[in-house]
Specification:
9 helices, 9 strands, globular
Length: 253
């Protein structure tokens, strides 16, 4: 089966600074891949290259079998993207914002209004559908962002820090949405975050980025066995991550 996301030696430099270094990665169709690392590790830069919003310095990437650099519009039609800071027209309602997004993406089917209401109901915003988005809380904006992602019926959903700034209830709802995307809708989820406990709760596999380098990738249980020497024991992703982090700090000291 063709990977949903595939990179080979993907690299992005800004002058002498290397933001992403020789990233080789594969994400399977329908899985939740947790992409983690500290701020400045190269996570968002990687997302932008996969979305065709930033051109790599070298290396290759394929999303749904297409090159995001050479075929950016085609890739954008096949994927959904929830950025860290979701942008909407604040003087427009949720329905108006979704209608605008649908038109931008060439979605004009006769059942669009019903589909929008169905999506808003799924994310718990149907009662607020005709309220101006400027009055929405951060959690409501994030949920509207999920509805926007789903509106395109994507094959891959890229989520950049989707729970940042949410309260515990909003965080749990967002993690439930992420799980639903994969388990029920069979959408591949590329979930970028530095909140390790949340990544552990929903991810099938994870990748750890440090200083632009992918230092580990695989199921969390396998990484625990490799780094902590534990099997079928209690462990946390934070323990695994900190082991890699300390080793990297020692190696570059």
């Amino acid at each position: 089966m063709e990977p949903a996301i595939e990179t080979h030696a993907l690299t992005k430099r800004y002058g002498r600074q290397v933001a992403v270094n020789n990233l080789t990665l594969e994400v399977k169709p329908g899985e939740i891949f947790g992409f983690l690392g500290p701020n400045g590790a190269g996570k968002t830069t990687t997302l932008l290259m996969l979305l065709g919003l930033s051109e790599p310095t070298s290396g290759t990437a394929r999303v749904c079998g297409h090159d995001p650099t050479r075929e950016p519009l085609l890739v954008k039609r096949l994927v959904g993207y929830l950025p860290e800071n979701v942008g909407f027209y604040e003087d427009m309602t949720a329905v108006q914002n979704l209608t605008y997004v649908a038109r931008l993406n060439g979605i004009r089917d006769g059942g669009l209004r019903h589909r929008m209401e169905e999506l808003l109901d799924q994310v718990g915003l149907l009662a607020e559908a005709r309220k101006r988005v400027g009055a929405y809380s951060r959690g409501m904006r994030q949920r509207l962002g999920i509805a926007e992602v789903l509106l395109k019926d994507p094959k891959v959903a890229f989520l950049d820090e989707p729970t940042l700034g949410l309260d515990p209830d909003g965080t749990q709802k967002m993690l439930d949405f992420i799980t639903d995307l994969s388990r029920r809708k069979q959408i591949t989820v590329f979930f970028s975050s530095h909140l390790l406990d949340q990544v552990q709760r929903v991810s099938d596999r994870v990748g750890i980025m440090l200083k632009g380098n992918l230092v580990a990738a695989g199921p969390i249980q396998e990484l625990a066995k490799q780094k902590l020497g534990v099997d079928q024991e209690r462990y946390t992703l934070e323990e695994i991550y900190m082991r890699y982090f300390r080793e990297d700090a020692t190696a570059t000291a």
